Known about the structure:
There is one protein chain. By secondary structure, this protein is an alpha/beta fold. The longest helix has 22 residues, at 5-26. The mean pLDDT is 88. It is built from 16 helices and ten strands. It has three domains: 5-61, no CATH class; 75-154 and 340-361; 165-335, Rossmann fold. Helices cover 44% and strands 10% of the residues.
Amino acid sequence: xxxxxxxxxxxxxxxxxxxxxxxxxxxxxxxxxxxxxxxxxxxxxxxxxxxxxxxxxxxxxxxxxxxxxxxxxxxxxxxxxxxxxxxxxxxxxxxxxxxxxxxxxxxxxxxxxxxxxxxxxxxxxxxxxxxxxxxxxxxxxxxxxxxxxxxxxxxxxxxxxxxxxxxxxxxxxxxxxxxxxxxxxxxxxxxxxxxxxxxxxxxxxxxxxxxxxxxxxxxxxxxxxxxxxxxxxxxxxxxxxxxxxxxxxxxxxxxxxxxxxxxxxxxxxxxxxxxxxxxxxxxxxxxxxxxxxxxxxxxxxxxxxxxxxxxxxxxxxxxxxxxxxxxxxxxxxxxxxxxxxxxxxxxxxxxxxxxxxxxxxxx
Length: 363
């Protein structure tokens, strides 16, 4: 992301000022190889706040790597998951806690749907865990007697929109009846491989029923160049930001508020978000593979999904839904795995966060 002269001054003048002060007051060198943690945090926050102003169609600006790690700098412990997609920041804001606090050292916040307990989930069993639903809590309980596991619903439910009501109304007027599409996406540890042509062709057919079709692209897939076929097909592509951007969920909330219906070619957390906001979803079955960066975890996940009763239960109500209907079966599944009935009050979330801080002190 290119910087203007004003942004360069805002980013670097304060660190230079404090270096000069340290030089004359304490005799420290002005130039050094590494910035201090405080300097890195300052620059990172400036970068993140600048991204907040970007349009959701600014794919390059939203998907580039945040300076010095973005929101993960807000997590001093070994577990950085609380800050994925701004989960902890959303809960802080909802609970009325000052926004840029560091997350508790031993807090984990579920950041995506769970149908089976993979190794990644098992590594968190000794932490304070905020999970989405009572069903997920039961899945955890099969592997631990840790009492600090609480179902609170998905952090998305607590997010405020990054756009004002007036801005949302203007976008709805511009786009008309809008279909929001979610292609299957890569993860931080595995690249997705699939033939996007069938899904693109289906979206073109849907243009006859909707005034506009938007494609929400994942940051990692924009970096990999997988968005080009959707752009070449003429779709307006948008992005919620990098996974280390604390405003990710707030952008996502706005996209759902603008849309009239959603569609995807793979199971994803966006399905429950869509139902939560009363937007119907159609899940179109498609074939894809995950190519791992660090071993065979992605391959194992695909194999488990194919044989998992929970995975089948999650998908079933949304398949064969070309009329974009919302059914009671869909709502029951979303409540079971996304925890729509587990949403807490601001006072309750604040209490749970304070409890997590107290737990971290005992370590």
